[in-house]
Amino acid sequence: MNRLTSNARGRRPGFTLVELMIAVTLTGLATVGLVAFLRQSLMIYYSVRAEHTINRDIRAITGRLASDAVTANYFCLYPNFSTRTELVNGVAVDGSLVDGQVGDFLVLVYVDPAQASTGTSMITKLVGYYREVTDSTRNNGPVRRFEIPLSTPVDAKSTPMFEVLNTYVTGSISSYPALSQLAQGLAANTATQTVVTPPLFYNLLNRSVMISAQISASLTEKGVSAQTGNTYNFTISPRG
User: Fold this and answer.
1) What value does the mean pLDDT take over residues 201-215?
2) What are the phi and psi torsion angles at 2 (to 5°)?
3) Taking a C-beta distance cutoff of 8 angstroms, is the pair 140, 186 a contact?
4) Would you give the end-to-end CA distance of the chain in angstroms?
5) In this prediction, what percent of the chain has a pLDDT beyond 70?
6) Which of 34, 46, 149, 197 has the most crowded Cβ, counting Cβ within 10 A?
7) Domain boundary assignment for the chain
């Protein structure tokens, strides 16, 4: 009897090796599931933040464009920031685009109203919007804006616009502030024109400009990346 009592006292409660392995496996599975859930939650969170960034960029672009167009007298549209001329019989002439053509460089032109009655078009200010393609694979990059008052008004009838631009828009393509970080052009031309990738702006009847683009945003924080985008289309018309 004493021996039975001694054996009973010698046995202590505990876990077997199999039970420990099962517990460790279940804990590992639960941890993996929790990590996956947290990562997915972070991706959703960053995606929402990127969407807010996109909406902010769209409001910035549409608001500024609409405000600038209301007070502009007319516009000129060019293929891109650097291409402002074309060769005709070996002579460089203004390369502004015509109805139905598309480009990535929009110039809003402001004329002194005091000179309008005399038939003289004295340009007093230039406002430009253009896209800098920093990723040729995805055809996207920031949309930039400049606003340049002319120190000496220029007669638009006697001076080609490309000469005005070359004189006053002297900064590099990256010199001017960006309104959005990632923009992909979606404008499709209807006139005879060779376009490698779709730009932002469409010349509508030489009176209005249609803007067609996809604004994207990407965030990478704590090793988690998320990217989202949204398209927008709207039209502006200088007062003329």
Assistant:
1) 92
2) -65, -35
3) no
4) 114
5) 78
6) 46
7) 27-236
Q: At 22, which amino acid appears? A: I
Q: At which residue do the structure tokens 């604004």 appear?
A: 215
Q: Are 74 and 238 in contact (CB under 8 A)?
A: yes
Cα–Cα distance measured from residue 49 to residue 37, given in angstroms and rounded to the nearest whole number: 18
How many C-beta atoms lie closer than 10 Å to residue 62's C-beta? 15
Question: 76-89: buried (b, 16+ CB within 10 Å) or exposed (e) per residue?
Answer: bbbbebeebbeeee
Which of these, 43, 56, 48, 78, lies nearest to 165 by C-alpha position?
78
What's 144's DSSP letter? Answer: E
What is the C-alpha to C-alpha distance for residues 117 and 132, in angstroms, rounded to an integer? Answer: 38
What phi and psi, each to the nearest 5 degrees, are found at residue 48? -65, -40
CB contact set of 69 (below 8 Å; sequence gap of 6+): 75, 108, 209, 236, 237, 238, 239
- How many Å apart are CA 152 and CA 30, to the nearest integer? 72
Look at residue 100 and give its three-state secondary structure: coil
Task: Tell me the pairing of strands 201-204 and 102-103.
Answer: antiparallel
CB burial of residue 224 (10 Å; 0-12, 13-18, 19+) = middle
Residue with the two structure tokens 């249609």:
210
Q: Where are the alpha helices (DSSP H) in 15-131?
A: 17-71
Q: Locate tokens 């598309």: which residue?
A: 102
User: Residue 223 gets which letter from DSSP?
Assistant: T
**pLDDT per residue as tens digits for the range 54-65:** 677 777 788 889
Residue 199 in this model has a pLDDT that exceeds 90:
yes
